[in-house]
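Open question from group meeting: does this chain pack into something compact, or does most of it stay loose? Before anyone orders reagents, we agreed to write out a predicted structure and look at it together. Recording both the input and the output here so the notebook holds the full record.
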Amino acid sequence: MSREIVLRTLPAVALRGMTVFPGMQLHFEVSRKQSIAALRTAMDGDREVFLVMQRDIRTEEPKAVKEFFPMGVICKIKQIFNTPKHENMRVAVEGLSRARIADVQRTSPYLTMLVSEKHTYAVRPADLEYEQALVRVLTECFQDYSQFIPNIPTDLILQVLSEDDAGGLADFIASNASIDSLKKQEILNELHPLRRAEKLCAILRNEAELLEIEEDIQNKVQEQVDQNQKEYYLREQMKAISIELDGEEADEAEELREKILALNLDDERRDKLLQECSRFAKTGRTSPEAMVIRTYLETCLALPWNVETKDNLDLERARKILDEDHYGMQRIKDRMIEMLAVRKLSPDIKGQIICLVGPPGVGKTSIARSVARAMGRKYARISLGGVRDEAEIRGHRKTYIGAMPGRILSAVTQAGSSNPLILLDEVDKLGMDYKGDPSSALLEVLDGEQNDTFRDHYIEMPFDLSRVLFITTANNRDEIPQPLLDRMEVIELSSYTREEKFHIAKEHLLRKQAKRHGLNLRSLRVTDGAIRAVIDGYTKEAGVRRLEQELAALCRKAAVAVAGGAKSFTVNEKNLEELLGARKYRREPKKSEDEIGIARGLAWTSVGGEMLDVEACVMDGSGKLELTGSLGDVMKESARAAVSLIRSRAFALGVAPDFYKNKDIHLHFPEGAVPKDGPSAGVTITTALVSALTDTPVRADVAMTGEISLHGRVLPIGGLREKTMAAYINGIQTVIIPQENVPNLDDVEPIVKESVSFLPVRDIDEVLEAALTKQPKPVRQKPMMPLTEKSVSAETYAQ
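Structure tokens returned:
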């Protein structure tokens, strides 16, 4: 075991990239004035000097203890002489013993250190056999290593073969081998001879493997290039090195590091990425982990951390763009203009998340794209239909094979801006299974108070989503989870009316399809009547997708004619069926005669408004109520409520009070294959029943809508805009609506208001007065018999 002999103060010389060992003779050149002064001082004394390697070779004058490696060697100066350059000095020394730095006592005019001399541990008798084996192994390692080193002196090899002390052999080989100075310092630091030899064995084996690979590379390159093409040879050598060496090019890690620093991130994000970059630099190129780390760093660097676009908040320009792209939709346009106005006054506002709910094809997706264009923001769309995995939103942990960030951050990367407009399409069609609930993951994304620190599972760092403008779309509001719905402002988009479809087709779709098919409005002429005929006879939808397909079919017909030499092609009502085939939908002819038991109701469907006839038939029977026409539970309940209302007012309405006992009632709703439901047919059912029970015709030019209560009150309904358009198309002159729906008349098309008169009502009496051709005469009530003991019986009581 080593022990401290004595503390000595010696002049010291700091070495750059060079290590001295005990028993080693070394020649080196000294240029620093501080080192030259230390050597001269040692020559004036006992010629002993302390040589130690400094940690950073760039340090010109190291002074502190921490700037040196702790272990050095006390050396004896053998010879010293000046070089042709008088500023430098060349010196020959011989290593005596190891010594550890205790303190730096002087730094000027030369370096003086207080050191403690160290001796190597003695090998225990029990370890002598292990030492012999270790000497053999170390000798073999050196022989393997020396095979790749040209021109090794024979004396050196003989000296190695003759040495039987493990510690001394390790020092001798380390001093003469061409290995890295830091690895040499590791050998110098080790005082135990056996451990010192073990470390050197590992170093030599590693060096031998690297030298073997280098030799293979040299051979491969030599076979591929000519000796005279030195530049080409060097390029091929670098290529072979990059393929063969088990390591990554240093400049790649450094390039990633420079990109990270250039992002100007906060401390948390920067330190995280730099830590991953350091791992990447230490990982071999062929290691799977290197590929995972590289992909992660490239994904993080691709995110637009500090990149954002400047909003264009010119309200007039925004309104012009919205009007150019879409006809009508005034409510949603006004809301978007309001949003821009608020952002203009308060740029830092957060939490404006809008949900557009409406049937397919009404422009929910396209209006979001137009808003992005109006604001000057980048646009990205995420389809959520059928998404069942929570990782689709938050990403996968990067420890999994094939992991990637979630759709939210992928969309931000795709947009290339930290404040894009992201459309979350079909948010009502999110699924859920054992992999998690994606709608729950969206709660943080769509919460303006939390999404400024959104953490994706793959990125594992907070990303600010508060500057992103989210717009969601859905077809059915009831399918959206309630916690998600609470975070959004819902705007209902109703189906297009016939008049809106006409303007959209004429001003937008026809021009778009003509341009797509290489036509213009001169070579293709479509009359207004033909457009209306296409809408009525070939489409039945809420939006305009099918309408656009039919117009595209007309454009193809026109393209064939124009390509054949025709100057223009005209589409009118006469040749429409010849071009598109027979009409797919035909509207029933208008009934102009007043009829008994038939009342005209108005219904809302997903494809717009419809006029729905309610037919009532009264027959002798036993009081049965038959309901047909594929009715839902709510509509069946409305029919039963109408019967109960008529029973309660039988005398006032002129209906026989015992009709519910001796008459069978059959209510039928035509188009029986089409499911029907809802409470808005209540007043229509009641009117048809009263008409059938009193033989009073119902006016053919009157249509109605409204829910009925047991006491005869007319309750409000929805879809008034679509229902009134259906009345207008069918030539109805008067529409009876609930009094509480009068404010909704503002949404009705102007052309409908001009052609149809509206009659607001509060109860069923007002409905019957307007709908029936004449008022039924009240039935005189029979006088009641006085109740006596003889006259009271179960039968009399029942009557």
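Observations to bring back to the group:
Residues 782-799 have pLDDT under 50 and may be disordered.
Residues 188 and 258 are 36 Å apart (CA to CA).
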